[in-house]
Amino acid sequence: MKFHNLSSQYRSLQKEINQAVTQVLQSGHFSEGNEISRFESQFANTHLSPYCIALNSGTSALHTILKSLDITSGHQVIVPTNTCFPTVEAIYMTGAQPLLVDCEPDYYNIDPGQIESVINENTKAIVAVHLYGQPAQMDKIRNIADKHNLLLIEDCSQAHLASFNGTMVGNFGIASAFSFYPTKNLGAFGEGGAVVTNDASLNNKIRAFKNHGSSTKNVHEFIGHNYRMDSIQAAILSVKLKHLQKWTERRRKNAQHYLELLADCHEIVLPATHPKSFHVYHQFVIRVQKRDQLQQFLQRQGIETAIHYPIPCHLQPALSHLGYRKGSFPIAEMLVNQILSLPVAEHLTHPDIGYICDRIKKFYHK
Questions:
Q1: Between the CA of residue 87 and those of 57, 63, 199, 292, 309, what are the distances in Å?
Q2: Is the dihedral of CA 75, 200, 171, 283 positive or negative?
Q3: Which of 18, 77, 325, 343: CA 20 to 30 A from 291?
Q4: b/e for 311-342, b at 16 or more Cβ within 10 A?
Q5: Alpha carbon of residue 296 to chain centroid
Q6: Three-state DSSP class for 172?
Q7: Cα 63 to chain center, whole Å?
């Protein structure tokens, strides 16, 4: 049973996608064409924001936000250690230093109660990551950012359509980064990303930055980068965006089925949802004992699983110079030895979920 089934997803939309790609090929406009502006408008409307800038990856999106906010050498940016490494990587690409913070034991996002302890005179921003599709506690985090006059940025790479306390992610901070990596809830057929913002001035600066620092042809106001999305990816994303709400509901129903069927399996800690969160389940992450043995057992039963992420950022070799060591962030370190992501995407049926749960119970009760 596949963890992702992107070929099946393509087959379900084959006629629409082929037509959209053919139109781009026939137009001859492969970069910065009408498909880009069309997708930007659609995605901005979907996330209830006035501005969306399409880019070539989620990492580019976060880097562009940080650079456009003048985050640079000598600055520090608060970020959770329990996140995908590109979140931290984008901070380094500006010359700034990440200030890592442990995660909550229940929801696995950055722990708001630990943020203020690392703030100092060089701290300029907080990056709140909505991990696994569940929003971070944005009310508490925004209060901290406001109190200390810090920029608030959201990493929404795994949280398309998620919301916290009725507000859709991407609307809490000055800007937010989205990823359209193929396995995301909304994925391109290649790389892709976007920035969403409510700030008109920042929108203009990011548009210039992604285009070599140019908002007028042949005039380069500052040093930027080539972070443009290509038109074929935008056309594909526009097709898939129409189905995102339906796919999200399927993920949520699959997650609910897991929660019901595994409720009596006491060897498992099921994912908790914050009462203010609308969780979109980019991943369905359980905590288990004998994790590696269970994963191997499920693989033999034809069930693919994954671990997101096996090494927290503070223990990555690339960050060894920061001086963190084992024991620095005990919650994150505890989680990485227990977490296991079960397949939850829209291609799965309730019988599929039933089979997976039956196999898990068989492993623990044999």
A1: 12, 9, 22, 26, 13
A2: negative
A3: 325
A4: ebbbbbeebeebebeeebbebbbebbebbbbb
A5: 27
A6: coil
A7: 14
| Token pair for 314 | 């503070």
**Segment 87-109, tens digit of pLDDT:** 999 999 999 999 999 999 999 99
User: What whole-number distance in Å separates Cα of residue 241 and Cα of residue 243?
Assistant: 5
pLDDT of residue 23: 97
pLDDT at 240 (0 to 100): 98
Distance CA 100, CA 77 (A): 8
Tell me which residues of the chain have a pLDDT lower than 70.
none
d(CA 55, CA 60): 7
Going from the C-alpha of 190 to that of each of 6, 34, 57, 76, 227, the distances in angstroms are: 11, 19, 9, 32, 14
The answer to whether the CB of 227 falls within 8 A of the CB of 79 is: no
Tell me, what's the pLDDT at 167?
98
Single out the residue of 302, 303, 290 nearest to residue 365, CA to CA. 290
Tokens, residue 92: 């380094």
Residues 6+ apart with CB under 8 A from 177: 58, 61, 62, 65, 90, 153, 154, 155, 156, 157, 193, 194, 195
Considering only CA atoms, give the Rg of the chain.
21
Instruction: Give the separation between CA 23 and CA 38, rounded to whole angstroms.
Output: 14
Query: Between helices 34-46 and 231-241, what is the axis angle to 10°?
Result: 40
pLDDT of residue 33: 85
How many angstroms separate the CA atoms of 175 and 190, rounded? 24
CA 59, chain centre distance (Å): 10
What is the percent of the chain where pLDDT is above 70? 100
Assess contact for 231 and 24: CB atoms under 8 A.
yes
Taking residue 159's Cβ as centre, other Cβ atoms within 10 Å add up to: 31
Burial category of 24 from C-beta neighbours within 10 Å (exposed 0-12, middle 13-18, buried 19 and up): buried
